[in-house]
Design brief:
The chain is an alpha+beta fold. It is built from 14 helices and 35 strands. It is 26% helix and 34% strand. Strand 32 and strand 33 form a beta hairpin.
């Protein structure tokens, strides 16, 4: 198809701003999906996405629309809105020429939207501002329109209005996409690098991929140079892996095979590869016989949150290993390596892009593979300088050195932006101070809203920060963050000991000034949820080389003086003492050999910050 009749675009939006619903209306209006097959959130194919109402995996779709008797091809990439997936979003934005900035008319611009908007601007995309949910009785159309206009430095009349629910304004939006967004160019530049003529070779950007049991890895690509067809001998530039394309095609929205996909188009390639770690977002595909220089901007996603995952039943270790390998085929952003624990057995140490990413992967392991898991407390990476002069990277709290061995500790900090109504700004300050936040600026943001810029340790961001922020601001506050540099940290290891045995899953690294409070909280919490045993035992919090919190859990008691319904009586009182002494010795023997049985439910409750 002629390049001037192609439009490639994405949608930038905060979670729950109506992005998937707007995509549904576009699919209806362009007749891409028959009315009888239409359903809500049609591009969100995962059950987890539909249940939570969020987009996890980006989903491209090709639509055709006729304007002024000319047929146009519209390629939409529906991207995730959560900050954890910002790298994947940045690669998807490199695959398009324009983007819709979708803002909820009832909520206004949110912090995460600003982060993605900045990525779109850096990519040189045409931005089309759009207000969604204008049919809502809570919509503040004029106020939010002015907010968007100030943000983009445009005329408020240039901000479009739509309702994904009723379809109002969607046809006009499609027309504006065709008018405002530029068609793909053959000889364009990306990050200062020029693309080549078709005759020279082929070059395509991988912006996502998935795994199929029968066909292997299927990569989603935007073709920049040349054209791809079935049977081509191709090469992944970064991994260096060669393969033969088994099939190429487009998304309509299901995979639809074509003879070839050309420069300017978005489509897929079936690789047949069934090994993890080969395909990665941001890689470049080119001809193996005439390779071109890779497209710029590729980076290896860096895990920022770590957690250990163990099977509840040790016999399921091989099943967990297989499941992680399968998930790695469709998500190269998480990593895992084998580890073992004296209390939990064999498992895996996994790295994730953020807390939501961790939650999604563990949930998929449970749903898609039927596994029952024990997941340890999430942690971050620390740089530790020891007294012997060595510097170590610590990925697990369990391996964090004792306080006397450490000279200095460094931890990652994050740059945070919070947008909240003015009335909550002052209430937030003590909360931010409690989480060791250093506030740099507070400025007005639109109508009766403030934007707070600050820095804080990533460790504190994981200490129930998101939930508490939503609670304090009655759900109106939003947050975005980016990983900053390492700074000196004043932290220590806190061990939770149950019946004289350290519990690896409950070990954590905490701020020195909060260690006593954290130890007391964790010990009291564990005592309230752990099951009593046939013997008495202690739950202790240990840090700084000493026990700083302790609680005793009493044993189940059987009244040995009672036989059936009759009390042992008669004779000397020593008869009763003899029975009680015998019971006491039995309990002592039991305590020596028995272990406290900590159920999966206890682990799960301890992992949650609050009930």
């Amino acid at each position: 198809m002629d390049l001037k009749h192609i439009r490639n675009f994405s949608i930038i939006a905060h979670i729950d701003h109506g992005k998937s619903t707007l995509a549904d209306r576009m699919l209806e209006i362009t007749h891409t999906i028959e009315a009888r097959k239409m359903r809500a959130q049609v591009l969100d194919s995962m059950e987890l996405e539909r249940e939570r109402g969020i987009t996890i995996k980006m989903q491209p779709v090709r639509m055709e629309y006729t304007l002024n008797e000319q047929k146009y091809v519209l390629n939409l990439i529906d991207t995730p809105g959560h900050i954890d997936f910002s790298y994947e979003v940045s690669r998807a934005l490199k695959a398009v020429e324009g983007s819709i900035l979708l803002v909820d008319a009832t909520q206004g611009v949110q912090a995460q939207t600003l982060t993605t908007l900045e990525l779109a601007r850096e990519s040189g995309l045409v931005i089309i501002p759009v207000l969604s949910k204008i049919d809502s009785p809570l919509a503040r159309v004029d106020e939010v329109k002015m907010e968007v206009a100030v943000l983009l430095d445009i005329d408020p009349d240039d901000v479009l209005e739509v309702s994904g629910k009723t379809g109002e304004g969607v046809e006009n939006l499609i027309s504006e996409i065709i008018k405002r967004i530029s068609p793909p160019k053959k000889n364009m530049e990306t990050d200062g690098q020029k693309h080549y003529e078709e005759k020279d070779s082929v070059r395509a950007l991988v912006f996502d991929f998935k795994y199929d049991n029968h066909r292997g890895v299927i990569v989603y690509v935007r073709v920049f140079d040349g054209h791809l067809k079935k049977g081509d001998s191709l090469l992944f530039s970064v991994s260096g892996e060669k393969f033969i394309s088994l099939e190429v095609g487009i998304f309509a929205p299901e995979e639809s095979p074509k003879s070839s996909i050309d420069a300017g188009e978005i489509g897929y390639i079936v690789t047949g590869i069934k090994r993890p770690g080969i395909a990665s977002v941001g890689d470049t595909i080119t001809l193996s016989k005439k390779p071109l220089e890779a497209l710029p901007g590729y980076m290896i996603p860096r895990p920022v949150v770590w957690a250990s995952v163990y099977p509840e039943d040790a016999d399921n270790f091989s099943d967990l290993k297989l499941a992680l390998g399968r998930l790695r085929l469709s998500d190269s952003a998480f990593s895992y390596e084998e580890e073992s624990s004296g209390t939990l057995g064999k498992g895996f140490r996994c790295g994730f892009l953020g807390m939501l990413h961790l939650e999604i992967i563990t949930e998929r392991l449970k749903r898609e593979f039927g596994l029952h898991l024990v997941v340890t407390m999430p942690s971050i990476t620390y740089k530790v300088v020891l007294k012997n002069g060595k510097e170590e990277m610590i990925y697990s709290p369990h391996f964090f050195p004792e306080d006397g061995q450490v000279v200095k500790v460094y931890e990652p900090w994050v740059k945070v932006k919070i947008i909240t109504p003015d009335s909550y700004a002052s209430v937030l300050m003590p909360f931010l101070f409690d989480h060791e936040g250093i506030v740099h600026t507070t400025e007005n943001f639109g109508d009766n809203r403030s934007a707070i810029s600050l820095e804080m340790p990533l460790r504190e961001l994981m200490r129930n920060f998101f939930d508490d922020l939503k609670s304090i601001t009655s759900g109106y506050g939003s947050i975005s963050y980016e990983i900053g540099e390492y700074k000196v940290a004043d932290v220590v290891k806190l061990d939770i000991i149950v019946a004289d045995e350290p519990m690896v899953a409950f070990c954590r690294v905490v701020s020195r000034k909060r260690v006593e409070e954290e130890a007391r909280t964790q010990v009291d919490r564990l005592k309230s949820i752990i099951s009593r045993q046939q013997f008495a035992f202690k739950i202790q919090g240990k840090a700084l080389g000493r026990i700083i919190a302790s609680e005793s859990v009493s044993a189940f008691r059987k009244d040995v003086l009672m036989h059936g319904s009759k009390v042992v009586g008669g004779g000397d009182v020593s008869r009763k003492k003899k029975l009680l002494e015998k019971q006491k010795k039995g309990k002592a023997r039991m305590k020596e050999n028995a272990k406290v049985n900590i159920t999966q439910d206890v682990f799960l409750k301890m992992m949650r910050a609050k009930d």
